[in-house]
Design a protein that fits this description.
CATH topology of the largest domain: Ribosomal Protein S5, domain 2
Number of helices: 23
Largest sheet: 7 strands, mixed
Organism: Haloferax gibbonsii (strain ATCC 33959 / DSM 4427 / JCM 8863 / NBRC 102184 / NCIMB 2188 / Ma 2.38)
Number of strands: 25
Strand order of the largest sheet: 18-19-17-16-21-24-25
EC number: 3.4.21.-
Structural class: alpha/beta
Region (Disordered): 1-48
Shape: elongated
Radius of gyration: 36 Å
Family: Belongs to the peptidase S16 family. Archaeal LonB subfamily.
Oligomer: single chain
GO biological process, one term: regulation of DNA-templated transcription
């Protein structure tokens, strides 16, 4: 054993000596850039990267603002070159791109918050390309002869780790050959003596077996001297990138495998059982953790330590495992942390971890939409080309197909003059359209394929909403003609991209005590508050004493999910006013809109999907807030089916929805005079630029 230890120590000395350093050619073969290549990369500054890269295709000199392709002169997306580097493929998110570039220059941590599919992971991967070139490292774990449960850690230049391990293996192989040769000589001598001189065959065989086992047992100590290469960057051509999204503690922080044979010479050496975590593999690179709030508190605390100290020891993560007895020397963790998530990620994120990121880096909110300009439309055309090229199995898209996709990007933005930045969902539509074209053995993906894909690639919420509408028709629960007192066709959204029509019914009854407003239908907090706001308007204009009446409001068939948001405010107000005044409501009318306590109609979200839901249900008129008029981008098939009426005040809603001229006119006039908002005085109060959902 003493000879083995001396050999191991000599290898340690050779590891740090200049003679053991690999040649420049060896380092280049290991994956790092040569000097000339590095100079060529440095000539391109980081400021030239990302979405500033222009489209390398034929563009018209005088671009028409209404040109859906922004002046691109192409027949198919095959004519649009796709950038080689990921960072050049980033589209939109100008602010986030600028922050990523600064963070890459200064090696700062970044937290990106935003909706799914807006490019957080793509920017994180692109950052590894932007990082300053540094000498990558290999990490080896050695047996500690003084304490087997405290393995030693060594870091060497990238590519050198393999050479050191091979050198140790070669030394071990030579030692084993010498041991085997010596063992067989001794066994031969013992057998010869027992057979020829002592004439004790059984005793000779027993002695030979004992000698064989002794040599084999001793050789295990020699194998234990071979180091464990836990981080190998020999083939890494750029800074490492590790996606640790959803990783358990062992995968994130490293682990030590359990050993059921812990003694008797059959155990695996502790250093051979060490497994690196993502924080160790991302040393000198980028560690990306999406949905950061899903990590348990203990993992977040350890992650915070790794960021702060730049090193983190590896130990067994299960306290019941023999690996829990093992703890290595600190392993380097000099990574850039990119944490990502939705808005709720900040609520459950460890405050100290967020403080580390914010104190040593940047926080970025990802945009959902971007201004619709000719330049941006050209980049959306390049996006389609990128998706086709990256997939590798889709036919290229025709000019008309790309135009249809840009129209869909406008529609999904939900804002006038904007395009959506949720590229993951838009990319899904590209792939479905390409799959349809491929299934037909078409050479190109056409506009018709995109239209088929839009019908086929509906979300779960859209499919549920369509089935819900059909079932209501079967049971005659949908009323879209005639006049009914106290019943209004309200509109709501399910998920993010599907609309549904939900009736609201109201009834006024004598009260057994103090009058109150009673709302049913699994209403959530915001919806409850909107009902209370409506009751303020009713109390103000009504000639009847509501203290002696109960006002019952029912949201019909809302299901277990209930109703959230305040977009049913004008629906509730119209239903209750109809019930109080006993004036029927036109059932061919559907409506959506929020309501202030003064009767002004405020903007809401999802108006496009709500209008389409009303059209599917057979309604001929849809009332929406005037502030949302610019956000309407319904499909062509629905434009002739419904009349869209924008309103600014509850009096305008009643003027359209209620039946009977004399009664209705007196009611509307009375409401105008009491609330102080006249129909001919402007367009009402304009709501916030970002309508609230529902």
């Amino acid at each position: 054993m003493s000879n083995d230890t001396n050999t191991d120590d000599s290898l340690h000395e050779r590891e740090d000596s200049p003679d053991d350093a690999p040649s420049e050619e060896g380092i280049d073969d290991g994956g790092t850039l040569q000097h000339d290549e590095a100079e060529e990369v440095d000539k391109k500054t980081i400021d030239d990267l990302g979405s500033d890269v222009e489209i390398d295709a034929d563009v018209a000199e005088n671009v028409d603002e209404d040109d859906l392709l922004g002046g691109l002169r192409i027949e198919t997306t095959d004519e649009i070159p796709v950038p080689d580097r990921l960072v050049d493929q980033v589209i939109g998110q100008e602010h986030a791109r600028d922050v990523i570039m600064k963070a890459a220059k200064q090696r700062r941590h970044v937290m990106m918050i935003g909706s799914p599919g807006t490019g957080k992971s793509m920017l994180a991967k692109a950052m590894s390309e932007l990082l300053p070139r540094e000498e990558l490292q290999d990490v080896l774990v050695y047996h500690n002869p003084d304490d087997g449960n405290r393995p030693k850690v060594r870091t060497v230049p990238a590519g050198k780790g393999d050479q050191i391990v091979e050198a140790h293996k070669e030394e071990a192989r030579k030692r084993n050959q010498m041991r085997s040769f010596l063992m067989w000589i001794i066994i031969a001598v013992v057998l010869g003596y027992s057979l020829i001189i002592a004439q004790q065959v059984l005793l000779g065989i027993l002695a030979a077996g004992i000698i064989y086992l002794a040599f084999r047992y001793g050789s295990r100590g020699s194998d234990a001297m071979i180091p464990n290469l836990i981080v190998n960057n020999a083939d890494q051509k750029s800074a490492p990138f590790q996606d640790a999204t959803g990783a358990h503690a062992g995968a994130l922080l490293g682990d030590v495998r359990h050993d059921p044979f812990q003694s008797g010479g059959m155990e695996t050496p502790s250093h051979d059982r060490v497994e690196p975590g993502a924080i160790h593999k991302s040393n000198k690179g980028v560690l990306f953790v999406d949905e950061i709030n899903t990590l348990d508190v203990r993992s977040q605390q350890h992650l915070m330590t790794a960021i702060q100290e730049g090193e983190f020891s590896i130990t067994g993560q299960s306290e019941r495992s023999s690996g829990a007895m093992v703890q290595t020397e600190p392993v380097p963790t000099d990574f850039i942390m990119i944490a990502a998530g939705n808005l709720d990620a900040m609520e459950n994120m460890h405050p100290a971890l967020r403080s580390r990121i914010k104190g040593y880096g940047y926080e970025v909110y990802m945009d959902d939409t971007i201004e619709d300009t000719p330049e941006m439309r050209r980049k959306y055309a390049r996006f389609v080309a990128q998706e086709v090229t990256n997939d590798g199995r889709l036919p290229h898209f025709t000019e008309e197909a790309v135009e249809e996709l840009i129209l869909e990007a406008r529609r999904r933005a939900g804002r006038k003059g904007h395009l959506t930045l949720e590229f993951r969902n838009l990319g899904g539509l590209v792939r479905v359209a390409g799959d349809i074209a491929r299934g037909e053995n078409a050479e190109l993906t056409t506009r018709d394929h995109v239209l088929q894909a839009k019908r086929r690639a509906r979300s779960i919420e859209q499919q549920i909403a369509d089935q819900y509408i059909e079932r209501r028709k079967d049971y005659e629960l949908s009323v879209n003609d005639g006049f009914v007192t106290g019943r209004v066709n309200g509109l709501a959204v399910m998920g993010e991209d599907s609309g549904i029509m939900l009736p609201v019914m109201a009834e006024v009854t004598p009260s057994q005590g103090p009058g109150q407003v009673i709302a049913t239908g699994q209403l959530k907090e915001m919806a409850e508050e909107s009902v209370q706001n409506v009751s303020a308007i009713i109390k103000k204009f009504s000639n009847q004493d509501l203290s002696e009446m109960d006002v019952h409001v029912q949201f019909v068939q809302t299901g277990q999910q209930g109703v959230d948001g305040d977009s049913a405010s004008i629906t509730v107000a119209t239903a209750v006013i109809s019930a109080l005044e006993d004036i029927p409501i036109d059932q061919s009318v559907a409506m959506t809109g929020s309501l202030s306590v003064r009767g002004d109609v405020l903007p809401v979200g999802g108006v496009t999907h709500k209008i389409e839901a009303a059209a599917k249900a057979g309604c001929s008129t849809v009332i929406i807030p005037a502030a949302n008029e610019q956000d309407v981008m319904i499909e062509d098939e629905y434009k002739e089916m419904v009349d869209i009426i924008p309103v600014s005040h509850i009096s305008e809603v009643l003027d359209v929805a209620l039946e009977g001229e004399p009664e209705k006119d007196s009611l509307v006039d009375r409401l105008k005079s009491i609330t102080g908002s006249a129909l001919n005085k402007g367009k009402g109060v304009k709501g916030p630029s970002s309508p609230s959902p529902q």
